[in-house]
Amino acid sequence: MDAVLYSLGALTLIGGALLGASARVVQQIERGVVFRLGRAQPEPRRPGFTMLIPFVDRMKRVNMQVVTMPVPAQDGITKDNVTVRVDAVVYYRVIDPLGAVVQVQDYSFAIAQVAQTSLRSIIGKSELDELLSNREHLNQGLEVMLDSPAASWGIEIDRVEIKDVALPDSMKRSMSRQAEAERERRSRIITADGEFQASQRLSEAATVMAATPAALQLRLLQTMVEVAAEKNSTLVLPFPVELLRYFEAVATNMPNAASGQASPPAVAEAPRPPEQETHDAR
To answer: ∠ CA 241-248-250 to the nearest 5 degrees?
Structure first.
């Protein structure tokens, strides 16, 4: 009787050990790839409780979440011979667990290496202005370059973004001087355009006032009202410009009139010497 109990106990222990060795729980974010005697099973295990054959099956878990992988900063020379340092970030996820486990040894390391080489290639094919202002196009190019080998590994590249472009200090100073000169040019163009438009308006106003002399007097009175409204001690005395021109014409004509009325001085005839008179009498 005791032997039977011992046998049952031993069998229970062995069954419990086998059950513990064969029972597995797959998380919601994972898929299980089962290798049976070294051969990968075509159907991965779904989330939940699953059973394996002890000592025959081996299961490898694959995370199906989106992975954020930073790409280390890469030094390179752009197409216009400028040394830059560029880093990026890659978002990818596994869509085929069997291919990610069987086709490549370490898909995370493989994606990291492809991202670094692709980033260096993009730097060499692009100019500095494209790296600074046209990043969307470069991000799409990086995504295409990464998606080409990753598709065969069962990996989908979700997004690729360039994070930062580090420039040398000399290039930063040159770009700041260029930007300052550009802003100065724009300010001068705007100022000149404003002066041109103001001159056109003033020319039109002068034409209207020349056709209507009373408008000039009204403008003068309006100016006086505006000055008087300031409550200051300034006294404005309008002085016609025509009066100044009259005084100028009078001052110019007075020397000419004075020179025309004065008579030239008389010149007295000098007396002859005696010898010359005697010679004439002879």
So the answer is: 125
> Residues 125, 126, 129, CA angle at the centre, nearest 5°?
170
Give me the helices (H) in the chain, please.
2-22, 97-102, 107-125, 128-133, 135-150, 169-211, 213-228, 241-261, 274-281
Find out whether 105 and 97 touch, Cβ atoms under 8 Å: no
Helix (H, G, I), strand (E, B) or coil at 49: strand
Asked if 156 contacts 150 with a C-beta cutoff of 8 angstroms, the reply is yes
Domains and their CATH numbers in the chain: 15-62 (no CATH), 67-168 (3.30.479.30)
Please name which of 199, 135, 132 lies closest in space to residue 166, comparing C-alpha atoms.
132
Give this prediction's pTM.
0.59
Three-state secondary structure call for residue 150: helix
Give the H/E segment covering residue 57.
strand 57-63
Measure CA of the first residue to CA of the last residue in the chain; give whole Å: 206
Residues in the chain: 282
**33: Cβ contacts below 8 Å, ≥ 6 apart:** 40, 41, 44, 45, 59, 60, 61, 62, 97, 98, 101, 102
pLDDT tens string 227-249: 766 666 666 666 666 777 777 88
What is the per-residue pLDDT across 48-59, written as a single tens digit (0 to 9) for each?
888 888 888 888
